[in-house]
Fold this sequence. Notes:
By secondary structure, the protein is α/β, with parallel strands linked by helices. It contains 38 helices and 13 strands. A five-stranded mixed β-sheet has the order 11-10-7-12-13, sandwiched between helices. Helix 7 crosses helix 11, helix 22 packs across helix 27 and helix 30 (719-754) packs antiparallel against helix 31. It is globular.
Amino acid sequence: MHPHLQAAYPPSCVSPMTRNAVGGVSRKCSVHVGGKKTRTLRTGVLRQHEDDARELRASLLKKLPLTERERLLTSETQQRGPNSSPPTLSDDFSFYSMDIDSMIPPPSEEGFSVSHAGDEVTIYRELEELTTSTANRQRLDTRDRSGRIALLASDWASQYEALTDALLNYMHDPLEPLEPPSSVNETDQFTIEVVDIFDRRLRTFKHVSPFINVSLLRYGCIGSSPIRPTVAITIRMLDVYRQSHRVTPRFSIHAEAKMLCFLHGVYYRRHLAKQLRISYDVYLELHQRIDHRLDKVLGHNSDNWRMLNSCPTCQYKLTDEPPLEFSILCACDSNNSAKLVDPAIRGGQEHLDTRIGTSSIWLNESYVDAFKDEVRSARARQARDQCPARDPDDPWVDEPDSVDSAEPRTVCVDCWRNATPESQKKMFAIFKKSGIFITMCRHGFLLTICDMVRSGELMKYPIASVKKLMDIFGSNILYGYDIKCAFEKILLRSTLGDSAKRLNVQGVVPAFHGHAHNRLCQLQHHSKHKLGAGLEDFETCERVFSESNALASEIRNATKFHRHQALDEHFHFADMDRYAALSDFIFNNYVQALTSISTTTTFLANFHASNPTLNPDFDGDLEDERLFLQRLATKKDESSVEIDYVKALNEYEEAQLTYEQARIQFGQLDLRPNYSLKDAGNVRRHHTHAATKRDQKVDVVVDYERQMALDARWGPDHPERVKAQLRITNHLYHKAVDDVEQLVVMRLLELTKLQMSGLGYKLRTQISTALKSRATAIRNALTRYNKYTSQLNPPRPPLQWEQIVDYSFLAEFDLLRETGTEIQTKRWANPSYRHASTQHLAHQRAKEEIRRLNVEVGRLCTKIRDDALDYLRAIAQLELDNPPLAAHLQRRWQWLRSANGQHLWRIDQILWLPGYSGPISPGTREGRQCEVTSALEGAQHGLADEADEGEGDEDALSQQLQDVHAYMEGLNHHRVDLEFAE
Length: 982
């Protein structure tokens, strides 16, 4: 029987004679619909009814907000029952029932479930067509090609060492193909089609190895097959594609293949891209092996070396440098654009690929899963038993406080959880990898990365990342996380809690994300209130994701290996770009900090001059504000019968006034002979309705008076009524504040989504329309707010549109909600004093930034000097032992030397900045106190020892030694000319 019919009718409703052998139905089926008579319905009619009902449900779902949609889906799940299980896998997609309509977000709320890269809606529609369309239904391909892929990888693996040597020899001393082919000893020759950038033709090569690909590599080509290749791709073309893909991640391997086809006048076929992909995979593997050899020579092959040395300004610690409050500042966050569609859904059985595309910086799934039960710690379980149960897979787990905790429950995570309803969690069923979770240092260097597997942003990902940071960097770590306020509670209650306290691991909420948190949360967790945070905004991950999102279209339908390969390549090159811009980062931050100090100093001086009798204590006032908001959060606005009675009185008086006006109009009907029958009927009808409503309201008032045993009705001046009326006004005022805040936050989210890349035209138009209506709604909400502010005692100042659109204003909504007289006596509630407090905080953070930048300048100077020593020494040694590898290291040193030259120019500018207070010469890295001097002496002795072996070697070593001296002297005395820098 058809699955939809099985869901609609129990098996007993269908006559057994109409069932066929394979579980389907005949053209007619007997269905008991009630009574003694049996109606015969065609399956086509039933399916039409089903389609009509589904379309009606879809149209209603699209109009529901996410929160209401979640309630509806929860009730549907409860009606189906907890024991209902999905059907088993069959040979086509008919078994797979996807509720696509529940996955697509409603208008103006797309930013909650669609990633920055977008295109999820397109995937849902494709799968809907694949799973529901009878005409386009495909059979699952259950053939297993994993053996073929494993054999291909094994054949290449047996040649990798020889191929690596061949690639190094080609880059050092390339061979030229035979032009024209030699007629002598043709058995030592072979001809193959070679694809270059602008050329595609047959070429003849000479065998120089038993492996044909080793011979090809000596001539600068890589075959598309490990044993008998028919096409070879030039190294030059692969180099060009690698660098093109580096700067333009959207430029996929298929786009490269199509470009080559157009250049060569060949019709594009998919197997051409596959051939290019095979050669490119081997090319990347060979370069990775060369890098491993160079790392071994340079001493960069120890455990966690990349994590410990990726950022010189964060990790290149020097002896006798000034201490910092935190040894490293980092940011962590998830990205749901780097998804991987489950191949089993799109193409049947997955073709397994055992190759590993991740580097040592990745956290594997087993490492992350070791923390999957941390949320269910013993102390948290005790607190959770006293609260309603929550979904254990909820990405935004907010563990309740313990019974003895005096800290009020925060509402921040509830606001974040509203963005992840049940309908979005269903999305993860079709994605094998739902994104990545990364940790970056404040300069943008990657520290850790892991996959999010079929889930949202579960707490195990940040816990695993923090654990890795603690193991590698030790103590005094400051991290930024958008839900740090909730994550910190879970971290301290986990098995890492004692270690986190002992190692002084602390966190902050990033600057921009802090606007979505309430004022109390910002006072406790915002980066601008954190001692030692400097001017860092901890939004590094968002800037990194704006670049990596360009990979989404390429990796979403790739294999697991190629997805990891693309991500690893992207972040590897991103780290190189970050290093090249490191001195610019320090220079710009130094200028920003000096400007901030100058501006805030002037402002605070003017503030003290204009308020000579005021003795400000900004830090103490911030603590007083935090305590006040904590007390405010614990207050409960409990409803009482007096308030309900006063509400009923107000409604009765309003109904009485309406009735009096209607009675006057009704009494004047005889004096208005020009009234038409329709107008007269409207007046009589309005009089009748007003009288009926008045009678209903007075009955409610009388009922309350009976319950309260009142002898007389409360008049407008009755003390109890005035008190209750004040509470009602406060409630209406709070409701107006909530409406304004909600609309402003929704406007910010829509503005953010509108600026995302890859946004479709229809969705962009829809959001633009929503923004226009949102602006009107905000103005109407402001009108209501200003109406109730005038009714408060004492009245509050009105709000203007210019104040609302200011991002930083979101933190002030909690203060607007307080209507008591106590807040009026607090000087921190005064707008001018609050602005001065903000300037004071900016002044303190700018001074901290200067101290950290001074340390970073010294570390970068020392790193540049040590690079000159280490690379030149390694090159000199390799030229004796392995000249091809020395030539490759020389090319790496050439790029590094160019970047360091730019750093020297920027450091020179920093040294001349007015107000610079940092070091003016390089120091000594911890652990190599005597290595610099001994290395220089060793180079001098090496020069003397090798003097007898040849004049050329002596000249080369002399030049290298001069380069070292030039670097060392340049840091102290040399001023790089502006023309050279340009």
